[in-house]
UniProtKB/TrEMBL annotation:
<protein>
    <recommendedName>
        <fullName>2-hydroxychromene-2-carboxylate isomerase</fullName>
        <ecNumber>5.99.1.4</ecNumber>
    </recommendedName>
</protein>
<feature type="domain" description="DSBA-like thioredoxin">
    <location>
        <begin position="9"/>
        <end position="199"/>
    </location>
</feature>
<dbReference type="InterPro" id="IPR014440">
    <property type="entry name" value="HCCAis_GSTk"/>
</dbReference>
<dbReference type="InterPro" id="IPR036249">
    <property type="entry name" value="Thioredoxin-like_sf"/>
</dbReference>
<dbReference type="InterPro" id="IPR051924">
    <property type="entry name" value="GST_Kappa/NadH"/>
</dbReference>
<dbReference type="InterPro" id="IPR001853">
    <property type="entry name" value="DSBA-like_thioredoxin_dom"/>
</dbReference>
<dbReference type="GO" id="GO:0016853">
    <property type="term" value="F:isomerase activity"/>
</dbReference>
<keyword id="KW-0413">Isomerase</keyword>
<comment type="similarity">
    <text>Belongs to the GST superfamily. NadH family.</text>
</comment>
<dbReference type="Pfam" id="PF01323">
    <property type="entry name" value="DSBA"/>
</dbReference>
Length: 225
C-alpha cells in the first residue's frame, strides 16, 4: 500500500478538536492547506452494528463523571489562554451522524472547510445542538448549500455507507481519540501535540525539496558510515 500523506482526524463534537482547528488555522495555515482533513465520530446503534458485522469495534469509552469535570476546567483554561469566547453546548440525545454525514455532503461540494467552520461556530461559540437537523439546515442556508441535503444526510443510505467507509479508515489508522495527527509513521494525539505535528510536516516538506538537489558527493552508497 502506498504511503499516505499527512492527515488529521477531527470531530465536531470535541472541544479539543475545535481548539486544534483554531490553532491549526491561526498558527500553521500552511500545514492546514497541505494535510488531509478526516472526520471522526462516535457511531449510532445502526452504524455500530454494521461495523461489528465487519469485525470492527471502535475504541470509544463513555466518559466518567470525574473526567468530564476535569475536561470542563481544562477546556476553560485553554479557551482563556487563546482569548476565545465559548458557549458550552448541552447535548440531550446526540446523534453524531447528523453533523458528520452533513459534512460529507459539504465536502463533496468543495465546501467542507466552510462547513467545519460553521459547525464549530454553531456548537462551540453559539452553544447550538448540531445533532438537530434544523441546525444543519441553517448552516446549509448560510453556505448556499441545499438545506435539505444537510438536514437529511444522516438518513441517506449512500451517505451512511460512505460514513462506514470513513470509520473503517480511522479504524485502520488506529485512531482512538481526537484531535489525532499522522505524518508517515509519526502519530500525535491531543491539541498540545499540534506543534510537533506541524514541525514534522514542515520538515518532511523541506526534506522532499532537498532530495531534488543533486548531491556533490558521488562516493560510495554508505556515505560517511
Amino acid at each position: 500500500m502506498a504511503r499516505r500523506g499527512p492527515r488529521w482526524y477531527f470531530s465536531l463534537r470535541s472541544p479539543y478538536s475545535w481548539l486544534a482547528y483554531r490553532d491549526l488555522l491561526d498558527r500553521y495555515p500552511d500545514v492546514a492547506e497541505e494535510i488531509d482533513w478526516l472526520p471522526f465520530w462516535e457511531p449510532d446503534a445502526a452504524t455500530t452494528q454494521e461495523l461489528a458485522g465487519r469485525d470492527i469495534t471502535l475504541p470509544y469509552v463513555a466518559m466518567s463523571r470525574e473526567k468530564h469535570l476535569y475536561m470542563l476546567q481544562d477546556v476553560r483554561r485553554l479557551v482563556q489562554e487563546r482569548g476565545l469566547a465559548m458557549a458550552w453546548p448541552v447535548d440531550q440525545e446526540p446523534v453524531w451522524e447528523v453533523s458528520h454525514l452533513a459534512y460529507l455532503v459539504a465536502e463533496g461540494l468543495g465546501r467542507g472547510r466552510a462547513f467545519i467552520d460553521a459547525a464549530y461556530r454553531a456548537r462551540w461559540e453559539q452553544g447550538k445542538d448540531i445533532s438537530d437537523p434544523e441546525v444543519m439546515a441553517a448552516i446549509g442556508r448560510e453556505l448556499g448549500i441545499d438545506p435539505g441535503a444537510l438536514a437529511g444526510a444522516h438518513t441517506d443510505p449512500a451517505l451512511r455507507a460512505e460514513g462506514i467507509r470513513r470509520l473503517e479508515l480511522l479504524h485502520r489508522d488506529g485512531v482512538f481519540g481526537v484531535p489525532y495527527f499522522i505524518d508517515g509513521f509519526e502519530r500525535f494525539w491531543g491539541v498540545d501535540r499540534l506543534a510537533a505535528f506541524a514541525a514534522s510536516v514542515r520538515s518532511g516538506r523541506t526534506g522532499a525539496a532537498e532530495s531534488l538537489v543533486p548531491s556533490l558527493d558521488q562516493g560510495h552508497a554508505g556515505g560517511c558510515g
